[in-house]
Every structure is written in structure tokens, then in C-alpha cells.
């Protein structure tokens, strides 16, 4: 036996610094596209910089902050080997929380945790995040890629992000602006978005035994392609509406479903009624319900059922709101109204049956 031993190293522990450096080089071209005039410096610093002097035009600027992830949708991306769409999901989850209060998204940072750094894979994830930031009108000012061998398998990863926005204090949207008679406008989702995938995966894979490459006639594409459909990013649509019409509140329909999320912006003395018959949920929602024997209440508290964002506006703003969304290519419709709340009424009630 040799008396000499080989010392431990970061590489022998499973961390590849060179691969991380390569990933940074590959992602630079995409990060450069996700910028704003206020973004200062480039990729590689210890902190992202944003020129706050741009806020001088505000009388009383309120900074809004949000953070989120993509959840178990990352498992679909991993199994499909498609990594450049979940970044859209990440951005949408963050910036559309910001815009609910009327805030304009300014910048985002991301965090990517992997079991093993595959540079091209990490760069593809960042590409999607950068493209999402462009769609949201915000800058991607920084991020972190962490390699965690031993905690995650070589092909496992997760993503998270945080964003900051700004809104003028006297233009802050929310429950205190809502009045009886207001209309509730629904904005169509692009599909499942990024919520409820634990239920979806359980039903489609564990119970039904479907494969991702299965062609599904109702979708006109494979199951995997449907499940990876990126989250619709509504921030610029919502901000456009605030410039063209009076808006009282927005509600981002994410985990918890339509009723629970809309209830978050309905004041205690008021009640919102949403009529299911005003829209038809996409085929994927019906599929999950049928294959899993999932009751409608369970579906509705888990999935968005075809509505990704809602706006509460005064009746006189309805026509302008619908025209604004139509001009932007966003399918939207009046789905309900706000009334005084009875003693035993819930904040939000869903009525009727979905249109067939």
C-alpha cells in the first residue's frame, strides 16, 4: 500500500467549479437581453445594481417585493429534457404577484439549485428566465447557481426567484378600493400555469399511468408539451389597463384556486359572485378531473380552471378594459360582480356550471 494519500478537493466532493464558470459564460447572452435603462453593470458582480434615481419621479414610491418558485413542474421539464420554458413560469409567478397591487416590476434575481452543473442546461433555464423578464418589462440583474451533490441527484434541480417593483402610494390597488357594483373581469390562463402539479402528476402518472410522449387528441399535442405550456405573464397587460381605465384591484389566480385568491382582495363587507357559465376551462382541467375522479371543489381549490388573473373594475371601465385586453391579444370577459355581503355569505361564490 502506498504511503501517499490523495487530499480531498471540491471536485472530489462533487462540485465542478469549471462547469459553473462555463454556465455563466453561456448565460451571458441571454441576461443581456433582459435589461432596463436603470440596470447598472453586468453579470458577474456580487450584487445586482439598479439606479434608484429613477424613482425620483414618484411622489411617494412604495417598493413591492415578491418571491416564488415553479414547484413540481420542474419534474416535467427534467423528464422532458426541456429547460428553456420553466423560466417563463418563474417570472410569471413573481411579477404577476407584484402587479396585483399596481406595482411595475423593475428587476428580478434568480436562484438555481442543481445536483450537478450541466452548463448548457443551466444556460437554457436562464434563457427562459431572461425571456420571461423581457415579456414582463423588468430586468434580470443577478442570480445564483448552486451545486448540491449528495443532496440532489445529478439530474435534479429547482428554481426560485425574487422580484422588486414600485407603485405610487396613491395608486396602490387593493380591497379598500372595491365598491358594490364593480365588475369582475377574468383573464384566460395559458393552461395549468405552475400550480397543482403534485395533483396533476399523481393523477396522470401514478393513477392513469400515462407517459409524457402520449399524443392526446384533446390537446393536439403530447401530454408533456401540454404540461410544459409556459405560464402567461400578465404584468404588462395589467399595467396597460391601469393607464387606460380605472382599476380597483387585481387577483393572481395561483395555488388555492380562483375563489381563495379572489377572496384575498374582497373587503369584509362585500361579496364577489363569479359565474362559471361565462367560460369553458381548457381540456387539461377536464382530463385531470375525469382520470383522477377529482371532485369539482377539489379541482377548483387546486387548479386555476382556465383563469390566470382577475381584475375588479367599476362598471364604467368594463368596455375600455375588454378593449384594452383585446388589443393586446388577451382573452378576457366579465365573469362576475361585487355586491354587499350578507351575514352568512362567503367572500367569493362560484355559481352555475362551466360552459361546454
UniProtKB/TrEMBL annotation:
The scientific name of the source species is: Streptomyces cinnamoneus
Keyword line: ATP-binding, Cytoplasm, Ligase, Nucleotide-binding, Purine biosynthesis
Do you know which Pfam families this protein is assigned to? Answer: AIRS, AIRS_C
The membrane-spanning stretches of this chain are none
Molecular-function GO term, any one: phosphoribosylformylglycinamidine cyclo-ligase activity
Q: List the GO terms this entry assigns under cellular component, sorted alphabetically.
A: cytosol
Which pathway, per its entry?
A: Purine metabolism; IMP biosynthesis via de novo pathway; 5-amino-1-(5-phospho-D-ribosyl)imidazole from N(2)-formyl-N(1)-(5-phospho-D-ribosyl)glycinamide: step 2/2
HAMAP family linked: AIRS (MF_00741)
Q: One biological-process term from Gene Ontology? A: adenine biosynthetic process
Q: Which NCBIfam families match?
A: purM (TIGR00878)
PurM-like C-terminal domain span? 179-346
Provide the protein name. Answer: Phosphoribosylformylglycinamidine cyclo-ligase
Q: Where in the cell is it found?
A: Cytoplasm
Going by the record, the broad EC class of this enzyme is ligase
Q: Which PANTHER family match?
A: TRIFUNCTIONAL PURINE BIOSYNTHETIC PROTEIN ADENOSINE-3, TRIFUNCTIONAL PURINE BIOSYNTHETIC PROTEIN ADENOSINE-3-RELATED
> For the PurM-like N-terminal domain, which residue ranges apply?
59-167
- Chief localisation class: cytoplasm
Q: What is its EC number?
A: 6.3.3.1
Catalytic activity line of the entry: 2-formamido-N(1)-(5-O-phospho-beta-D-ribosyl)acetamidine + ATP = 5-amino-1-(5-phospho-beta-D-ribosyl)imidazole + ADP + phosphate + H(+)
Q: Which residues form a coiled coil?
A: none
* Record-linked InterPro entries: PurM-like_C_dom (IPR010918), PurM-like_C_sf (IPR036676), PurM-like_N (IPR016188), PurM-like_N_sf (IPR036921), PurM_cligase (IPR004733)
Amino acid at each position: 500500500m502506498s504511503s501517499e494519500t490523495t487530499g480531498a478537493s471540491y471536485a472530489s466532493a462533487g462540485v465542478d467549479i469549471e462547469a459553473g464558470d462555463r454556465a455563466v459564460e453561456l448565460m451571458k447572452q441571454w441576461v443581456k437581453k433582459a435589461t432596463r435603462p436603470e440596470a447598472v453593470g453586468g453579470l458577474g458582480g456580487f450584487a445586482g445594481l439598479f439606479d434608484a434615481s429613477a424613482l425620483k419621479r414618484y411622489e411617494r414610491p412604495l417598493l413591492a417585493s415578491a418571491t416564488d418558485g415553479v414547484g413540481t413542474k420542474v419534474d416535467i421539464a427534467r423528464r422532458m429534457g426541456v429547460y428553456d420554458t420553466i423560466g417563463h413560469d418563474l417570472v410569471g409567478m413573481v411579477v404577476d404577484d407584484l402587479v396585483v397591487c399596481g406595482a411595475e416590476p423593475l428587476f428580478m434575481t434568480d436562484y438555481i439549485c442543481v445536483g450537478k452543473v450541466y452548463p448548457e442546461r443551466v444556460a437554457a433555464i436562464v434563457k427562459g428566465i431572461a425571456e420571461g423578464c423581457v415579456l414582463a418589462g423588468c430586468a434580470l440583474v443577478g442570480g445564483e447557481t448552486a451545486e448540491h451533490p449528495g443532496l440532489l441527484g445529478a439530474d435534479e434541480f429547482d428554481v426560485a426567484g425574487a422580484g422588486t417593483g414600485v407603485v405610487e402610494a396613491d395608486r396602490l390597488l387593493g380591497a379598500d378600493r372595491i365598491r358594490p357594483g364593480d365588475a369582475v373581469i377574468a383573464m384566460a390562463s395559458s393552461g395549468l400555469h405552475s400550480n397543482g402539479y403534485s395533483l396533476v402528476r399523481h393523477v396522470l402518472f401514478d393513477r392513469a399511468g400515462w407517459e409524457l410522449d402520449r399524443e392526446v387528441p384533446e390537446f393536439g399535442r403530447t401530454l408533456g408539451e401540454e404540461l410544459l405550456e409556459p405560464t402567461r405573464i400578465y404584468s404588462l397587460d395589467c399595467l396597460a389597463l391601469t393607464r387606460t381605465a380605472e382599476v380597483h384591484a387585481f387577483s393572481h389566480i395561483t395555488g388555492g384556486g380562483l375563489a381563495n385568491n379572489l377572496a384575498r382582495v374582497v373587503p369584509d363587507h362585500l361579496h364577489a359572485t363569479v359565474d362559471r357559465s361565462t367560460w369553458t376551462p381548457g381540456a387539461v382541467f377536464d382530463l385531470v378531473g375525469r382520470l383522477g375522479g377529482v371532485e369539482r371543489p377539489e379541482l377548483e381549490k387546486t387548479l386555476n380552471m382556465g383563469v390566470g388573473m382577475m381584475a375588479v373594475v367599476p362598471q364604467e371601465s368594463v368596455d375600455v378594459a375588454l378593449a384594452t385586453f383585446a388589443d393586446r391579444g388577451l382573452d378576457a370577459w366579465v365573469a362576475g360582480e361585487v355586491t354587499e355581503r350578507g351575514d352568512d355569505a362567503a367572500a367569493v361564490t362560484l355559481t352555475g356550471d362551466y360552459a361546454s
